[in-house]
Amino acid sequence: MKSDVCKITGDEASLKNILNEVEKTAAYNQLDSHSAGRLRLMAEELIGMLPELLEYADGDFWIEVENNKYELHTSLLPNKAMSSDKREKLLSISTSGKNEAGKGIMGKILLAVQMMMLDYSQVTTTAGNFYEMGRSWSLETYRSYAKKQQGEAWDELEKSIISNISDDVVVRIHEKKVEIVITKAF
User: Fold this and answer.
1) Torsions phi, psi for 176 (to 5 deg)
2) Is the pLDDT of residue 87 over 70?
3) pTM for the whole thing?
């Protein structure tokens, strides 16, 4: 089952539409209140980073459900607002090693999305802060990496809402769009 597709523009109404769609999907699939709350929490985490991303992208949001596996999809298509100045700013942030936006799991997801919105030839050569990023980034892969490292990366995972309630978060390039997919089986 696929929910209605919500256009997201970054204004308050479009962000509320995402939460409405989440609640509608939870009710339609008869999720208990605990599971519905977790689904909403994942959507709220996603909404938290959308205003910054929608500065230079147009987006869609929808949910797919199959056999009690829920996928929250966000598809972002870079628009003309992604100027060379903004590209340069993102590149300088990603390679500095002092990137405040890259702190925490949601910061890493945000940075992965931003990097993938840049020219694809630059993505693989400037991935600086990412572990095996390339054209996709996965929370599950990052969990494996962090578990081996056991330092700050592991602490970030333990403190992260999205890390604790989702099964995985994948950021990938699909055609000319950057997709964020948060999965959870109930």
Assistant:
1) -100, 15
2) no
3) 0.78
